[in-house]
Design brief:
2 copies of one chain form a homodimer.
Chain A lengths: L2 H6 L2 H7 L8 H9 L6 H8 L3 H13 L3 E3 L17 E3 L5 E8 L2 E7 L5 E4 L10 H19 L3 E8 L3 E2 L4 E2 L13 H11 L6 E5 H12 L7 E7 L4 E7 L2 E2 L30 H5 L1 H8 L8 H11 L4 H25 L3 E5 L1 H8 L1 H11 L10 E3 L5 H16 L1 H5 L1
Parallel strand pairs in A: 3-6, 6-9, 10-13, 13-14
Antiparallel strand pairs in A: 1-2, 3-4, 4-5, 7-8, 10-11, 11-12
Helix pairs in contact in A: 4-5, 6-7, 8-15, 10-11, 10-12, 11-13, 12-14, 13-14
Chain A binds a DNA duplex through helix 4 and helix 5.
DNA sequence: TGACTTTGTGCCGCTACTAAACAAAACCAC
DNA sequence: GTGGTTTTGTTTAGTAGCGGCACAAAGTCA
């Protein structure tokens, strides 16, 4: 060991300069197929910037690894000239990632293949225990059952939690809606559950909105965006996420994009953070239901608020409350646009319903409050994936394979 | 051309997947020497993660290109064992970048070598014309004169302007303090001036605070940081910049980190943006001087405010005004911390003076208003480089060489 | 003085790629 | 049909960059 070298730079820095070796084209090629950007070897050739020979060899190797499928029969695209190409697709019986999600109403487990395809889903549970180890043990047991039933190889496991996850410790800082203790070592607990269940591969844990953003970027409304901003509500509060150049930006300690305490209404209601009129307390489902004067129903705050916006927008009380929320959400998004200048924004939860109820109003507010009205033209879209947090959790587990297929599976 | 491939992904995406070829170790190695992280070939070996043979060959090639110098005599580090290593350093007579900066008081030109070392400086001008082409023509003429005097090879030119620069057009959106027209095509004008002066290499233009952040990251207080946030004042207004993984984050249209309109004082003074109590109007030199009740002096707002803070902090009026600014700056920084979660913050201009006057107060405010007080522990430092915008402008011109030394110089 | 430690270099071989020629499978014009 | 064109896929040979290894060099330590 060389002491000078070890203390000189932080680990992540030398990682950035460290060179890749081996089949460097393998990972990028798999990612292109995974995200649906390489339907044929010809496209793969162009996207990788390599020769046809290389693209062919790489594709063959990925097929040999059981990750992708190359159609035996060529299929000509309509109106195309030349020799028809063989389609590339994700292997249908290839490995899967075990994805898990916990939320206020319970948990879910699923197996997710390449391409973000959900292969199998466990029934799920509708209640949640106060002990993280018990909950995560149950959800992993459900996942292990799925693996036994399908008999598929597992590349790893990912967990989505409705809380900020601190780096590098992997503790849940505010699992307020889970009745879990703040600071619970979720990553470690989850990894232990995965190991104890005899499941292959590494285990990862992330915030649900972050993972939803990652999934939308790769397989949903965020495809092709370079700087993607996601904002979404759960039942309570607001979460944000940023995907830069295809990677989640979680900041130095995992706490980036905690957007809930942007001020969007200086005279607004007080927030537990000590300020007033935070995005959290002004635009979440509870804020909306309170403004409408609706009694809490049995279906949960988020579902109740969404349904009201979607189905009763003609009701003046609903519309007035919704427009107030849209204006404040727009103010918050404009503030984020001025700081992050994303090239796309995706909304989830109640915010998605608000966008769909009156897209023009939201876009106008954002454009009006963005500097020079210019970046106000940023596209604002609704998220498009079902279970995007679950798919995002699987992306975490797939990442090592995408980075180095041979190293992770060989 | 393949139409399908061309329309499938945006250009930057295929660039990310496109593979490097040739001597892939050359660029990273040069960057390590450039940023002072590879003082010997042994360290270079460790940082690159290659064999000694490769590191030796790469260093020899960089020396042959005239970019670095390998000491003929070995120099043993104190208290070290083993064979002493030959020191690596930046070539003293190697190529230079032409750096230019325009600001409210005039312009400056300099030649900057690798390592961020200013090799030569032109006297500079104290007045500024309303016509961008004339100003940039003059500054380039001063730079060309320096090149003639020193006879050194030029790798390109970089320009720092006190305005947001829109991407990809390269227009200055708010050169308010320059008396230039908003929307001036500064990048194109600058590139034309460079070409007309017969200067080799490409020309680049960027915002001065962004470039200052880049320079501080590579050669100053930001070294080793992964997520670096910079906030600085000029004479009027506040600018921000973010360096992620060694690269400037300018957002999709160059307008990221326009932090001047964060709300830091809801009942504060009105801002031209339509809101009240923006960081711009609450924490810039004019805000400070107004709060103190000082008459504008001849030395410029920034210098006057800085001097007051640095030399008259005992004066109750100065102290009261400074503390109010610190509190509001802290609020703004806390908001940015909640969104970006940087691992370091660097302050420039008046903000630097405020930090140095009362570092504890500023850190306490930021920690208090950051979520969980956790990321509030982010280090807040003063910038350390002289002429950091100028050095940053040179970094732009050096970047192609750092990315691919052979391709840029061979 | 000799053992040990660390740095630097020459040589060999591997491997992932390129380049270029060839083969295959569609279309079109006649 | 038949032959030409276009695009895709494969085969072959060649190359460049890096790893591995052995060895040499230049210091410290006992």
């Amino acid at each position: 060991m060389n002491g000078k070298a070890a203390t000189r730079g932080e680990a992540h820095l030398s990682a950035r300069t460290r060179l890749e070796r081996g089949r460097t084209a393998l990972g990028p090629a798999l990612e292109l197929v995974h995200t649906g950007r390489a339907p044929t070897r010809a496209v793969l050739t162009a996207e990788l910037g390599v020769t046809r020979a290389t693209a062919g060899a790489v594709a063959a190797e990925l097929e040999a690894l059981g990750l992708i499928r190359i159609d035996a029969k060529p299929s000509a695209a309509a109106g195309s000239q030349g020799r028809p190409s063989h389609r590339l697709s994700v292997a249908e019986t290839g490995p899967v990632a075990l994805a898990a999600q916990v939320h206020a109403d319970g948990f879910r487990a699923a197996l997710v293949g390449l391409g973000g395809r959900i292969v199998a889903t466990a029934p799920g549970c509708e209640t949640i225990d106060a002990d993280p180890a018990q909950v995560l043990g149950s959800v992993i047991e459900a996942g292990a059952q799925l693996l036994r039933e399908t008999g598929r190889r597992c590349v790893g496991a990912g967990l989505a939690v409705p809380s900020a996850v601190a780096e590098p410790e992997g503790t849940a800082l505010n699992p307020l809606h889970l009745a879990w203790p703040a600071g619970a070592q979720v990553r470690e607990i989850f990894a232990n559950c995965v190991r104890d269940a005899g499941i292959e591969g590494p285990a990862f844990t992330g915030n649900d909105v972050n993972l939803a953003a990652l999934a939308e970027h790769r397989h949903g409304a965020g495809r092709g965006a370079r700087d993607l901003l996601c904002v979404a509500t759960g039942h309570r509060g607001v979460g944000g996420a940023l995907v830069l150049d295809g990677r989640l930006h979680t900041g130095s300690s995992g706490l980036a994009l905690e957007v809930g305490h942007l001020t969007v209404h200086p005279e607004g209601r007080p927030c537990h953070c000590g300020s007033r009129g935070c995005l959290d307390v002004e635009t979440d489902p509870l804020a909306f239901l309170t403004a409408v004067g609706a009694e809490p129903g049995p279906e949960g705050l988020l579902q109740q608020a969404r349904t009201l916006v979607a189905e009763n927008y003609a009701d003046p009380a609903v519309r007035t409350a919704a427009e107030a929320l849209i204006d404040r959400l727009g103010l918050g998004l404009a503030g984020l646009v001025n700081i992050l200048n994303p090239d796309r924004i995706i909304l989830g939860g109640l915010h998605r319903a608000l966008l769909e109820a009156d897209p023009e109003r939201l876009r106008a507010v954002v454009a009006d409050r963005s500097l020079w009205g210019r970046s106000g033209g940023v596209p604002i879209l609704a998220c498009t994936l079902d279970h995007n947090s679950l798919v995002g959790a699987a992306e975490l587990a797939w990442q090592p394979v995408l980075d180095d297929p041979l190293g992770a599976l060989g």
